[in-house]
Amino acid sequence: MKAFLMYKDRDFDLKQKLPWNERILIQDLELNTLFKAMAIDDDFLFDVAKKTVLTGVNNDMDTILYRQNILRDCLKNSTIVRDIYDVAIEALEREKKTLWGIFARSPSLYSSIELLQIFVDILKKLKNIADIHACKFESEGFTTFFLMLKKELGDEYFATVRDHLVALKFRNGVLISAELGKGNKGVNYILRKSQENKKSWMERIFSQKPQAYTFYISERDERGARAMSELQDRGIKPVAIALARSAEHILNFFIMLRTELAFYIGCLNLYRQLVQIECAISFPVPVGFKERRHVFKGLYDVCLALTMKQNVVSNDVNADDKNIVIITGANRGGKSVFLRSIGLAQLMMQCGMFVAAGSFCANICNGLFTHYKREEDTDMKSGKLDEELGRMSNIIDNIKPDSMVLFNESFAATNEIEGSEIARQIIYGLVDKGIKVFFVTHLYEFARSFYEKKMKTTIFLQAEREADGRRTFKLIEGEPLQTSYGEDLYKKIFGNV
Length: 497
What we know:
It is a single chain. By secondary structure, this protein is α/β, with parallel strands linked by helices. The protein has two domains: about 20-170 and about 250-275, no CATH class; about 285-495, P-loop containing nucleotide triphosphate hydrolases (Rossmann fold, 3-Layer(aba) Sandwich), CATH 3.40.50.300. About 50% of the residues lie in helices and about 15% in strands. It is built from 16 helices and twelve strands. It has helices at about 20-30, 30-40, 45-55, 60-75, 80-105, 110-135, 140-150, 155-165, 200-205, 220-275, 300-310, 335-350, 385-400, 415-430, 445-455, 485-495, and strands at about 175-180, 185-190, 285, 295-300, 315-320, 325-330, 360-365, 370, 405-410, 435-440, 460-465, 470-475. A six-stranded mixed sheet has the order 8-9-10-6-11-12, sandwiched between helices. The protein has a four-stranded mixed sheet with strand order 3-7-4-5. A two-stranded antiparallel sheet has the order 1-2. α2 packs across α10 and α4 crosses α5. The chain starts with about 20 loop residues before the first helix and ends with a helix. About 30% of the residues are buried.
């Protein structure tokens, strides 16, 4: 049995390799805030959320849409989905207790029977949920899942399993055949099915008995009893192994069901928190790699909203057909927050989630990279500029066409002319390879050089500032600003001195 709730044709691999820049993405986009909101203090949910979000850039269009439709079903039927998840959890918890109880003492046929009986009872619960609620689900994923349960877990299946488990308890003794090998040693031990006695009592009394030989073991004959036990084990062992494999097969199904549903449970947890603080969500419209789409309304930083536990400022931007988005303007005007919202929305879209926006449409990318300024510290082996260039070199070594790079105050560790030239040459090189760039900067010479070229594939945004210096934290289209208005912050702290 397979769940197929993350992919149409394969299981979700919880051990898959994460992107090489995992740590950097988590730091720059504050992803742990998102993972914690999805997990709600559940380590397993946290791990699944982390793996799913960070590997989302590997998903194709079909997988994204496949998960979106499943998630829509989950939002409409959240209680039912949580019930299915709880069934999987119950199976794993019961198995753990059985493992540490019966299996730990003496792995045997009887312990496998015990575990299989537990699993069968839990499968009946799962089948009952499917029978009652399958009609409420519309996605391909859940439809296939419920059809699989209906096909695999019919009344005949449960009846057959029940009969086999009863027979394997050997209430009438164990019937084993064997052959004599070299040295009169027993070989080819085979467990036989007990023959049902269909003769009447009259026939059983008067009919001729088959030739048989019987012997009894004295209660004090420990060696004889041990020998009989060993003979019995030889016949039962192959059956015990087969039964253990059957139990393992069902166990693996519950493990995978829990793993794949965990992603959607995390989404439900996140949705509940966003609804409570009246934040909007929407299902994004992804388009192909080669298109250049980026248009949204009401996009906000989901991590900031979760941290502040309230609705936050959102932005509307149309960057369709653009390869370069350059953002300038006032300090503490919302530029970095906006940049983070871009990265978060891209990852959430590509892993099949809803996004933190009223509406959102963008092309999927082949990888997401961030290049943020770093404060100088004792771990740096060289100057800030060398460190920045080193990180940029790592990105170049791993980047692919149709990827996206988010720059935040990069290459400002040197003078304006040198920093602008470095940034300009890097951006030209990236765009030439089909890579989309978002660049937050105070390097006016850099931004101005692109503005003067009047490139149709470039859009310029600026952090909005009122005449009195007040920040709205909104991003608006406008030519690059030469100042970051640091004097506003100075006056706010020290007054007009």
